[in-house]
Amino acid sequence: HAYLYRPNTHDHIWFQNLSEPTTSDYFEKAKNAHLGYELAKDTERAFGGHEIKTNDELFRMLGVKEDENPIVFILAHIPNDYPNALGASDLYSDYHDWLIRTLEIIETIDSVTWIVKEHPSMVNYGFHFEYFDELEARFANRNVHFLRHSENFSTKSLQHLASAVITCKGSAGFEIPALYGIPTIYWTGASYSSFKVGTEISSWNEFESLVNSFNQFTLRDLPLDTREAKSCYIFVYLQSRLDLDLNPPSTQADLLNNE
After folding, report:
1. CA dist., res. 22 & res. 28, Å (int)
2. Is 110 exposed, middle or buried (0-12, 13-18, 19+ CB in 10 A)?
3. Angle formed by the axes of helices 204-212 and 95-106, to 10°?
4. Beta carbons within 8 Å of 206's beta carbon, 6+ residues apart
5. Please, what are the averages of pLDDT over each run of 10 residues along the chain (259 residues)?
6. Tell me, what DSSP letter sits at residue 50?
7. Cβ–Cβ < 8 Å for 191, 237
8. Measured distance CA(37)–CA(44) in Å, rounded
9. E strand or H helix that includes residue 6
10. SS3 category, 143
11. Are 181 and 174 in contact (CB under 8 A)?
């Protein structure tokens, strides 16, 4: 188990003064711990599975016709997982509300292929296929597709497929830029906001204007600071963790199973 705190000014100064070789060394140590599945079961659920390396393979798995649009992944959260515990927001009431509003905005934007990815630990929080079934029935169209965790899709696939990734406050907001150099869009109040990794959203109007501008050219110009992303990754998966046996399990299912 581990405890994560938010960075302060001294943390940022320390990272800014690290040399590139030292940053790389720390990053590799953090990556080995994270992707070695030493820190949380959620990581293996997310990054395990089959790594898809081509758009053709992705579309065949989804059972839809391939198109030439750039692909943007929307990473769904677990709807009943404390959405405001890491920074209260009046932009949405919970993660379900955030996802619905996001889908209502992007569903008519046909310059992008949108892939809505189910959270890998959804079922461990009491949510089953019906939840995504309802979302898919309401929002799926030729540009919006839903990817279930049961498809055995590895998050490692994003490095081959994604032009950008959208999350509310999920760790993918810094993980994906750090690991794969892919820009992310995330909402204000994320625990890693102070690292200035990518595009932080502070209003729905700002988000709507941004995604409506997306095409194969504008997506290349999204803010992306891989040095900041790697510093955040090091902070989260190496520098800010302590062994504490008193910490709660990583999911409700772990608690119920007394793991």
Report:
1. 10
2. middle
3. 40
4. none
5. 65 90 95 84 87 96 92 91 62 90 97 94 73 93 93 95 96 97 94 93 97 95 97 88 52 49
6. B
7. no
8. 6
9. none
10. coil
11. no
